[in-house]
Specification:
The chain has about 280 residues and is mostly helical. It has helices spanning about 1-20, 25-30, 35-40, 90-95, 110-115, 120-130, 170-180, 185, 195-200, 235-240, 255-260, 265-275, and strands at about 60-65, 70, 145, 190, 195, 205-210, 215. The strands form three sheets. Strands 1-2-3 form a three-stranded antiparallel β-sheet, with no helix packed on it. It has a two-stranded antiparallel sheet with strand order 4-5. Strand 1 (about 60-65) and strand 2 (about 70) form a beta hairpin. It is globular. The two termini are about 35 Å apart.
Amino acid sequence: MKTKGLWAAALALATVTAGAETPVERGKYLVEGILTCGNCHSPRAPGGVIDAARLYSGGPQTWDTPEYTVKGANITPDMQTGIGGWSAADVKRALSEGKRPNGQQLSPQMPYPFYKIFAPADLDAVAAYIVQVPAVSNKVPPSVYKVPQMHVDGPPGTGAPLPESAMSDPVKRGFYLVTIGHCMECHTPSVNGRRDFRNALGMGGERFEGPFGVSVSRNITSHKKSGIGAWSDAEIKRAITQGVRKDGTRLKPPMGFAWYARMRAADIGAIVAYLRTVPPKE
């Protein structure tokens, strides 16, 4: 009961803190933290280091699939090369529906199926922040769509906004944060080109190549041997915020530990509480 009381107090404090923020401040906290938007939407210097002078002006990676060829777009409000002509409503539609202002479907590299769970106030906050970041001129090659409609899906339970009342429960709050952080997008393997959320949620094994070299997502289920079930809370938090595994070795991008390090302790704790509930998979 004492631990539960401490959790409730920490989450209540985090909620009060978030409530005291302006929408732009809340949006900054989300975009520069759990959402890791700059991970895909920012240029990288040699070795994979984010180019901080050109944040959100377009990423270096190209995704080429049978359905589309895309790069991380310039999402700064530059009028010629970014989204300077978009309104806050346009940004929210892109996030929650995966649609450009002209109705064109975005590729599912933009994880909008995960963003359907966004609390309305948080969605408003993200849009408020994005439309006022510094404009950076950086022309990104246009996306190429090879099919009229692209398949998109998200993990079970992510198809509608999470009620505000659920945020006081650490596990539900952690589920919300892991979802908007689209963690399971990287940590769930694909079967026939589709993430197998129902049978392999959190099992890892996906391979990523970039300026950082080659990275393979790990199993983050509660399995004691294959996953993180035998890790302590402190070890999981260290991996999330510092990029250090239980054995002391370092993680590589695109794991966004530099972004997660900016998150509040109560939010990191909620994420750990949720990960403890992910069914073990080997």
